[in-house]
Amino acid sequence: MPTTWRCGRFLFDFTKRRRPVVMGILNATPDSFSDGGQFRSPKDAIAQAELMIANGVDLIDIGGESTRPGAEPVSLQEELDRVLPVIEALKDCGVPLSIDTYKAETMRQSLNAGVDCVNDIWALRQDGAVDAALDSQDCGIVLMHMQRDPLTMQFNPEYLDVVADVMLFLKERTELLRSKGIAQNRIAIDPGFGFGKSLEHNLSMLSHFKDFSTLGYPVLAGISRKSMIGKLTGKDTNERVAPSIAAAIMAADRGAKIVRVHDIPETVDALKLWEAIEA
Fold this sequence. Notes:
By secondary structure, this protein is α/β, with parallel strands linked by helices. The protein has ten helices and ten strands. It has an eight-stranded parallel beta sheet.
């Protein structure tokens, strides 16, 4: 099991904390599936980040391009215009910042502006992305599995064995980074709930979530408010708080070291109770 995760200026020590790192989602976008448009202006995004910090978030993940199913890509300059003012304002906020992007230049400029982690749905498969990560001596890296791309990923996704197939992909990507000299404790992995998976695939991954930890890296669970929850409950996006928290707790029970969530205070409080029982 991983004992630490280096995230830029910060080090998460899993020998001293039982509960997962709570990664708060901050979408500086007009069209993200859950909160698109709410924090589109830098002023609103910064205010939301400050509220997250007050509510106990451990890490803030800033995104300037929606990757919901069917999302259209945005230009490099538009993404930079959305995220850089937020990063500049928050770089000394006291918690690590992550940039949610697959563009190498966005990674570089965000790292130069003060982010501590790169969170990439493409697992650094886009041109220049690995080199951008290599330019940093200590940034955290989250490698996610996705079948195809956001425009087409939900068109009949297929696997021989979703858990085994995703694990093989993540093993190959982590081994590539290790071969480039990136330290093991900088890397985290994300099986990619909802990214080219059916409801049955998602449920199988959550049921067997412990298996991903056998790869030796902190595992991130990103299930918050996703369509799998809507399909099971019939609830609209903003009515999925309770099942999202339940999913975070189930992931924690199965070894998740990072949970990426929308609902910070509720998730933090639930994990405090979970941690007390685990202890």
